[in-house]
Amino acid sequence: MKPDLKQIQVPIENEMAQFELKFRDSMKSKVKLLDHITNYIVKRKGKQMRPMFVFLTAGVCGGINDATHRGAALIELLHTATLVHDDVVDDANYRRGFFSVNALWKNKIAVLVGDYLLSRGLLLSVENGDFDLLKIVSNAVKEMSEGELLQIAKARKLDITEEVYYDIIRQKTASLLASCCAVGASSTQSDEKTIAKMREFGEKVGMAFQIKDDLFDFGDDEIGKPVGIDIKEKKMTLPLIFALQKADWLEKKKIIHLIRNRSEDKKAVNQVISFVKKSGGLDYAKTIMDRYFIEALDILKTFPESAYKTSLEGLVSYTIERKK
Amino acid sequence: MKPDLKQIQVPIENEMAQFELKFRDSMKSKVKLLDHITNYIVKRKGKQMRPMFVFLTAGVCGGINDATHRGAALIELLHTATLVHDDVVDDANYRRGFFSVNALWKNKIAVLVGDYLLSRGLLLSVENGDFDLLKIVSNAVKEMSEGELLQIAKARKLDITEEVYYDIIRQKTASLLASCCAVGASSTQSDEKTIAKMREFGEKVGMAFQIKDDLFDFGDDEIGKPVGIDIKEKKMTLPLIFALQKADWLEKKKIIHLIRNRSEDKKAVNQVISFVKKSGGLDYAKTIMDRYFIEALDILKTFPESAYKTSLEGLVSYTIERKK
Questions:
Q1: What does the pLDDT read at residue A199?
Q2: Residue of chain A minimizing CA distance to B150
Q3: Which residue of A82, A112, A129 is in closest CB contact with B145?
């Protein structure tokens, strides 16, 4: 199936439309400034892949119900909260082609808006007794903040190992997609084994997703994102880690010198990118990504056929074939 | 009873000692950077009035148990998370005589550490099935972030009313103390009416607490905190709101001019402070504070006598008689 988000959404079209309303509604506040900001956030919404994972996994596991809807809203509120906080963390001025909340309203407001969104997600779950969903999601909040902190502590060390890289991306990225799929399964009252299987499926998709994201930084695409940002920030990702592992002593010394002392210089960054390409770093990362992709699809194969399952397979393909 | 924190703590001495260990333990992480930061946070701990409110209200309502302990840890984790985020919000470099987390490790890390602490609180509750406590506390997170945002939107408008001021401090400050007392009561399996009574008690204490805090800014104390910070930041608090309400047209115009255009000038700030004192703004705020204080104690009177109750009365007195 050629991945096309419109096509993928067909079996959950009504659910996604309902979700839009529920999500908007769940952020409403009597504080006008807050309403103003959350309206802005809704306007610049992304592809909403996370709610799609929640609905499709629930569909595969037996059927979408009200708890699935609340789970999707909880996940998207949490995800939005972390994006707003991330932009403070990264000092980012843009998000999805719009100004970031911190750029328009300053850091202080962005931190508070993030906390507010998180609390609305919690309340939605607590008030409806969705404690299983809450457990899954609280764990994701912990993993994500730990993962980001691990990245800050480790990813700029130039001798970072592949293992540590996988730990970081598992916590900071894959844990949320794992939670989406666990929430979807859990909302249908599936047994623990099925929930665990769906969590593992989501984790593998998340790993592939982040490796794809890290590949973009090496211009591994005609149109992709701006190139060399990670190198400029001395953030070590899989293609570079692999290339350095393989390099001989002299080459390694030269590349580390470039990253350490000249990462602000576009020419030096391009030299690093060429080195990674020449060393097979991109191919290696793609191989690992494909392995996660295949393992994810293998897990999915154990579930019965349905339109949901076909769409979910399409969504997985989309995450690794997307152009941005 | 003369308020003395050591004396107040006598009936809950063992509980507070256990709490220390539980709190420290609940923050542990395998990420070293995070452990390093949370150790630092533990070292600069405050008076821990919030856990004291949790334990004492539970004592008054029938007895401290394991759920009370988890409630106290949940509240203190949440409170610590908001303090770490507040320092980002306020661009503060100090907290309790130590450098703030954002000053030592930058905003980005402070935001993540706050999120991490919050998630640990959530997990502690979710894993133990403390859903009633979680509901109370999720609501507090929502109220606090809304209250801070309302303050940002409103408190710098020079024509702010007393009503809006009360709304702000009810949400940003009183909601957490209300939650402490509701959590204490709820942990003992008290009925809804008792929990509601304790919540109201805590809210009134919180209102008095914040009015006291706002009075400090007018140097209403021999040793207190630095004076005139709120005026410098154009933050309108009760003494000033009252004084402006009472002032004639010409005087009002003069004071508003000083706040709007010269609040960076120490002399102008002192003129505003003198005006507030002369207009009886401090006395008025103290009268309102005392009213909340008395109403809080009146609620407490409906509970049976005990060492916990005596200490709780002492703790309430402490909040309005404290010198900093």
A1: 97
A2: A31
A3: A112
